[in-house]
Amino acid sequence: MSAKRLAVLVVPVLVLIASAVAQVNEVSITAGRTFVSTQTITNCTLFNCRIHFGNEESVAFNYGRLLKTHQIFGLYAELPVAIYPRMDLNTETHGIPEDIGALFVTPSARLNIFAGDSVTPWVSVGGGYGRFRESSSLNFYGKNPGPTGTNTGVFQFGGGLDVWFWSRWGARFEARDFYSGKPDLNLPTTNSRQHNYYVGAGVIHRF
Description:
This protein is mainly β. It is built from one helix and eleven strands; from the N terminus they run H-E-E-E-E-E-E-E-E-E-E-E.
């Protein structure tokens, strides 16, 4: 076989191998909203003894690396990062922060079904670190006498769908629960932890 013919056969194979090796990493960015359940204030004598959380705009980033494939499954290590900069708080009781913000960083394992196909559902689980920012202002008036920063551990559970519409680019739809401690609200509530439900959509890139 001539060198020219050998090159014609080998080069495409090397390109495919290089492409397969290179495309084990993924990055994504999605935008959506975070939902936090209402909390009930303990030892409250008012008619409405609840703290309501606004459903605010949020953004999430993700880096994933393929570790192993088996039949239709693909196992990834991933790093979800979710942020909601400001979430308004509402209650009839005085003394809570005007708003809060949050950052969640949760190293996780993700299992993709039909890995490598154009439509790939997945589930994810992991845990890590969270930080709340409490407003320096109170909900009615005055300066917040409490902490303006709270650290917490976070468990992450989620699922989603990746749709690869062009080469290395796709669309991601995801829903995750960042189950964390609660921010310092200056008032006791019946909750010791809280669910931060994130729902978003965006783009994903494979390289």
